[in-house]
Structure formats: C-alpha cells, structure tokens
What we know:
Helix content is 58%, strand content 12%. The protein has helices spanning 2-12, 17-34, 52-80, 94-140, 147-167, 229-244, 255-266, and strands at 170-173, 185-193, 202-205, 209-212, 215-218, 220-227. The strands form 2 sheets. A 3-stranded antiparallel β-sheet has the order 1-4-5. A hairpin with a 2-residue loop joins strand 4 (209-212) and strand 5 (215-218). It is elongated. The termini are far apart.
Amino acid sequence: MDENKLKNFLINGFQPKEERDEEEYGEEQIDEVSGEPDEQEVETPQPREIPDDGLDLRASLKDLETELIRIRYLVEDLKDAEPAMPDVSKYMTTREQFKEVTAAVSKRDAEAGYKALVNAMEAVSVMREDFFKLCQGMRERIDEMSAETVLSSFEAYSVDMENILSDGGVFIGAFPYDRLNTLHHRIVGVVPTGEADKDGMIAERLSDGYKIGDKVLLKEKVKVYKYDAKLATSDETTSETSSETVSEPVGKEPADNKAETSKEEEE
Length: 267
C-alpha cells in the first residue's frame, strides 16, 4: 500500500485530499476483490491533468520553502552575531560591586598620579635649564665670585626642589613617631641609657623623611636610645651612696663654739 502511494506521488505529484481518498478507496476495493494483491501486477496509472487548485498549492509550498530558507539564514546570522551584554548591575553581589568600585578608584588614582608626575617632570626640566645657566654665569665670573656667593647660589636650588616635591604630593619632615619605626626610620647611631623606659625611643633626628601617600620614599635618619644595664647599676649605686652620706653646711659653726665666743666678748 505504501509503495502504491509513493508511485502515485512520484507520477501525479501532490493531489487534493478528496482525490487521494477516492483513489485509495478504489485501490482498497481492487485489493479486496483480487484476494492476492501482492501477486498481481500493479497497473501503472496514467498521468492526468492537475487542476488549477493543485498548481496554487504547489506555488504556496514553494513560497513557504523560500520563507523557511530565509528564516534559517536569519537564525544563523543571529547566532554568529555577538550578543549585547545586558545591564546586570542590579544582580551583582556585594563582592563584585566592591571590585568595580576598587577598579574605578585605582583608575582615577593612576590618572591623578600620572598628571602629578608630568607636572613634576616639567618643573625638573625648568630647574635643569636654570642650573646650566647659573653654572655658565659663574664660569664667566669665576675670578670675581667668592665662595660664599657660590654656596648661596646653589643653596637656592634646595628651595626649588622642595617646592617640586610638595607640589607632587610628597610629605617632607619628621614622621610622627617618638619610638623607633623601622618602616619610617633608619638608625645611624645609638645612645646608651640607664633608663629602661627610654629603650627604643628617638634620641636625635638627623634628616627629614619623605613620603607620598602610603609609600615611604626616603626614611628619616635618627639616633635611638639603647638600654644598658651597667649604666643602670652605676646610677643606682651613686644614688645610694649620696643618700647615706650626710654633710654639714659649709660656713656654719657649731652651737657650743658660738656660746663660748659670745662669753669671751662679754668679759
């Protein structure tokens, strides 16, 4: 039965439903009458003219096939195209939001630091040209200039360098630590002491410290106190000896001598 349908479709093409039902019904009646449908030869139906309705249906199927092909290409183009990232900021976790804020702050700091660096480099360039001009002027009048004049001319550049560093956001001065802080201080000397409370305290500051933001550019040079047990023992011995020894005031006579002297004067 399936082979007959296939042959009919290949020969006659697509047929309306009513005609297909009539042909199938007629073939079923022939099969029932013959009793042996498989052994009999199947008569090849003669091709017949397709009605106008069949032509319209065939054209509609062709149009449908064309539309399906067009849709398939559109779907492939959408798959190849990069999808736009939706705004998922409201679905971000606290950790992701913190990362975004940190990245934005770091970018802003980098831009501000770059701007400060450019300004500092411009100031250093100007100072370098001034330095060359000063040296050239001194060379022309080297016989007339005194050592004090030369020294004062070079000392003026310390002010220029300090201004450049300050404009760049650099802190210059003593760090606010009375006790030794190895991240900010550099030990260049030790002062022995017998007082245990002074151990590790700053005894003397020898230079300024330089710091920008949280980074130490140059440590402050200092001298620190170091506890010495021998000095502590000697101090205690000296204090005990002075407390045991009682000395009379100089120039003060005893009371008995005063009485004898006054008695002799009266006689």
